[in-house]
Every structure is written in structure tokens, then in C-alpha cells.
Amino acid sequence: MTALIGEAAADVGADAGPPASRTGPPRSPGRRARRARYTLTVLAFLLPSAVPLLLFVLGPMVAAAWISLTEWNLLAPAEWVGLENYANLLTDPETADVFLHTLYYIVGYLPLVYVGGLAIALALNTALRGRTVLRGVYFLPVITSWIVVALVWRWLLNPSNGVVNSVLAWFGIDGPGWWTDPAWAMPSIILASAWKDLGFVMVILLAGLQAIDPELLDAARVDGAGWWRRLFSVTLPLLSPATFFVIVISLINGFQVFDQVYAMTGGGPGGATQVVVQQIYDLTFRYGRAGEASALSWLLFVVILAVTVLQIRGQRKWVNYG
Questions:
Q1: Which residue ranges traverse the bilayer (predicted)?
Q2: What confidence score (pLDDT) does residue 129 get?
Q3: Which of 100, 194, 233, 249 has the highest Cβ tally under 10 A?
Q4: Alpha-carbon Rg of the chain, whole angstroms?
Q5: Could you give the maximum distance between any two Cα atoms of the chain, in Å?
């Protein structure tokens, strides 16, 4: 009996043929064709945005990187100087000054625009009559040209006949020189910038507030938490994703501040408001040093990239996405 079973097993094994390959059957031509069609479809949809990105973002970045390694006055042919422009900038005290002025602007601007935008968002998140109209009113400066806003604030802060100093004089206060005084020129720009950007911050934070579950606030209220306790223990932690977005965007915009500086002070008085992008503009179009200007723009890019990466890595400690 055992011999018969062994012979039967051998016959079955012989009929089964060689063992199947572990790699599986080869992919059919039809599957490869479907994958290729899918890839071409994705590329076709990305093309309208990829072409402008290549032409107007990546292309100029590569060109600026090459120009930063040359000496070029926009007229004569560029001459290769290697890393000399970077060395000159890093040893020039004026480079440190413009970065410090930019940092001064950010330190004054960011808390002001965030706290102001948060206050408006909290007010408009309540059952306030006419809040829809108020949202549009507060957002209107965001879509207004910076030149218009800068000229209006330049008139409001005029030291001799401006509205702000006239109101202060009515209370017996001698108003400062604002944008004509080196000590007050940057605060003038910060004030105008925060006023213009309040609407943008308000919209982002208001969207975050409306995404908070009201039951959480009701539970805190039932437990006896007052308004301030609910704000710091419930609202702000749950608002941290919107806060993170606002901080990242505001910091990037702060490092690139230019329009309001150019329109209100032009970097003066006495260079008190000379920021990085204003310096890039002056090096290029006033002094004909496009190579140094391109090098400075790349230094600014590296600083912005480093700050943004630090924020993204640090968000894990305080941003609550749950």
C-alpha cells in the first residue's frame, strides 16, 4: 500500500510540471498602456501651472543665482567674480543693518497684526448685528493697493498737519515726527502694515474659530470656566493650526517687506527704514550692482527657508490638529 501511494504522488508531481515563479506573471501591455495614459493625463492638467512656474519662478531663480556670481551693471556684459559678491555682503556692516531693520519690523508687526486680527475675529464670531458687512469692511484694506494705503497713512501721520497729530494736540500731547523722524519712521510703517493686513489675519482666524466644536466651549462653561479661561484653555489651543499658518505667512511677508517702505519713506530718513528688499532694489537700480543685489536676494532666501523649516519642525510641540 505504501509503495502504491508513493507512485501516485510521483505521478502527480510529474504532471504538475515545474514550480511557478515567485515573481508572478509579467505585466500585461494593456496595464502599462493604462499607466502611461494616466501619467500623460496628470501632466496635461499640471502643464498650465507648471509652465508659468518654470518661466516666472524657477527660471528667474536660476538666473539670479548665476548673476550673483558675476559683476553686472545692467549695461555692460557681466564679468565672472565667483563668490566675491557674497564675501563683500557678509563683511559689509550695511548688510547687518538692513537685516536688523527687517527684524525690527517683524518684531513690531507680527504681534500687532495677530492680536488685532484675533480680537476682530472673536468679535465677529459672536451673534453681532451686521457682522457680514463688518467682515467686508475689515477685509477691504487687504485688496487695496499698497501705494494708496501708504499715501493715506503718510498723510494721516504727517507731523505738521496730519490727522493723528491733530487729535493728539487736542488732548495736549505733542505728536512725534512719525515718518520724518528716524526713531518713529519704522513704527509708522509697522502701524500702516498692521492696519492693512488685519483683515487677512481676521479671515483666517475666523475660519479657525468657526471650526471649533461649540460643545467644547459649552462644557468648559458648565465646569465654571470664565471667558478668559475658555480663551486660553480651549479656544487658542484649538486655534493653533490657523495661528501657525498666520505666523508662517506673516513672517515670510515680513522678511519681504518693500512696498510700504518704498512708498512711505524710501528707506529713510537716514537709512532708518532701509530693509533687505529695499537694499536689493537700490543696489540694482540706483547703484548698478546687480550681482551684489542677486547675492543679497539669495541670502534672504536662505534666511526665509531656514526660519520656515524651524517653524515647521517646531509646530509639533504646540500645534494641535486633533
A1: 40-67, 103-124, 136-156, 184-209, 230-252, 295-312
A2: 81
A3: 194
A4: 31
A5: 121
In degrees, to the nearest 5, what angle opens at C-alpha 306 toward C-alphas 302 and 309?
135
State which amino acid sits at residue 215. E
Angstrom distances, CA of residue 112 to CA of 62, 74, 198, 287: 36, 40, 9, 35
Residue 256: how many CB atoms within 10 A of its CB?
Answer: 15
Q: Which residue has the cell 493728539?
A: 168
DSSP string, 171-223: TT-----GGGSTTTHHHHHHHHHHHHHHHHHHHHHHHHHHTS-HHHHHHHHHT
Using CA atoms, how far apart are residues 299 and 297, in angstroms rounded to an integer? 5
Domain 87-317, CATH class in plain words: mainly alpha
pLDDT of residue 46: 87
Helix (H, G, I), strand (E, B) or coil at 303: helix
Q: Enter the pTM of the model.
A: 0.84
| Residue that is written with C-alpha cell 565672472 in the block | 80
Task: Show me where the domains of the chain are located.
Answer: 87-317
How many C-alpha atoms does 185 have within 13 Å on its Cβ side?
23
Task: In whole angstroms, give the CA distance from residue 241 to residue 322.
Answer: 10
How many CB atoms sit inside 10 A of residue 71's CB? 16
Please identify which residue in the block is written with the cell numbers 513704527: 187
For the chain, list residues with pLDDT below 50.
1-22
As given in the structure block, the three cell numbers for residue 77 are: 556684459
